[in-house]
Design a protein that fits this description.
alpha/beta, globular, two-stranded antiparallel ribbon, Rossmann fold, homodimer, 190 residues
């Protein structure tokens, strides 16, 4: 089981980490011992959406082909507004076509949509971006999580925690979800 | 208003970002226009607590004196177990003594404690570390947030979101908290 976790400039960090934390506990809590992931970007250094004082991170790889993964995760943030029209970035996301699961939170849905992964599907995004998503999918729903089987989209920012736990449950069952949520001290549920 | 946000090797990323996201919205949502922060570490590159595949970040400064800040924030993670006994790190945290607010989540409380900031105070930490905290404070409480006025500690990992919103409310009021929580799509409350 391998996950490709995408990061990019002007990403909202909590979009990413709220999903990353529960998902990577599949490995650190030995629930799926062979679970692996790589944090990948289109640039060698990523700064988030909080301006010059924002967080700076270093991805594991740049524009590496995404063909060998089971799950693609795309967070949101202001950077999505231009990236959805960036041919190189969108073509790169398309290399993840073989991945069984495509997952986004917040405006990451615009990027899944630009790559064609939302064609004929229902999806959601941050409440402020619902209109922007219409061009990329069959129907936009104002819900916390829209699970279309292998394409799963979440609402804004902090939804990333609920979405991460939802995917933990899809991959490893309700008991695993409960164990991960307890270790995270996360008592909430949509 | 200036905040020093501490990061270190083997930190739990969600401990940090769950607080960072609501706090920095004080600036990005123009609630406290002159709000500033720096992300500071004892090392020039930080990797989180998920092993070699974990997130790598670059802090804004290394061992910079912490004397000019109003708020000190310390996240937790496995790294705290050794850092609480690391003289250089603890002495560095002590340079934040003038800061009005000292805030931690999860096992970051062990570091606030090692620096002496929990002396005579009640505090909390991750449920799995309650016993470890006893040496560093007056009384350990198994609660989500313990607010002792200017020293505020939170329980594990995802408590960082509740704690961040709590501090937003302390600094800017209940209306600001509600606006930030809405923008984060975070409907929950302890």
């Amino acid at each position: 089981m391998r996950a490709a976790l995408i990061v990019f400039d002007k990403m909202t960090y909590l979009d990413f980490v709220g999903f990353y934390d529960p998902l990577t506990r599949l490995k650190s809590m030995n629930i799926i011992p062979d679970f692996e992931w790589r944090i990948l970007s289109n640039t060698p250094r990523v700064t988030d959406d909080r301006g010059a004082a924002g967080m700076k991170m270093v991805p594991d790889g740049v524009l590496e082909p995404l063909g060998g993964y089971d799950l693609l995760y795309v967070p949101g943030g202001h950077g999505t507004r231009t990236l959805q029209h960036d041919r190189e970035f969108v073509e790169w996301l398309r290399t993840a076509a073989p991945a069984k699961f495509k997952v986004s939170v917040c405006t990451g849905a615009l990027l899944l949509g630009a790559a064609g992964y939302l064609n004929g599907r229902r999806a959601t995004t941050h409440p402020a971006a619902l209109k922007d998503l219409e061009r990329w999918c069959e129907a936009v729903l104002n819900e916390r999580i829209v699970d279309e089987g292998n394409v799963i989209t979440g609402s804004g920012v902090a939804t990333s925690l609920d979405l991460g736990l939802h995917v933990v449950e899809r991959l490893a069952g309700a008991d695993a979800r409960a164990r991960v949520a307890a270790q995270m001290c996360y008592p909430y549920r949509p």
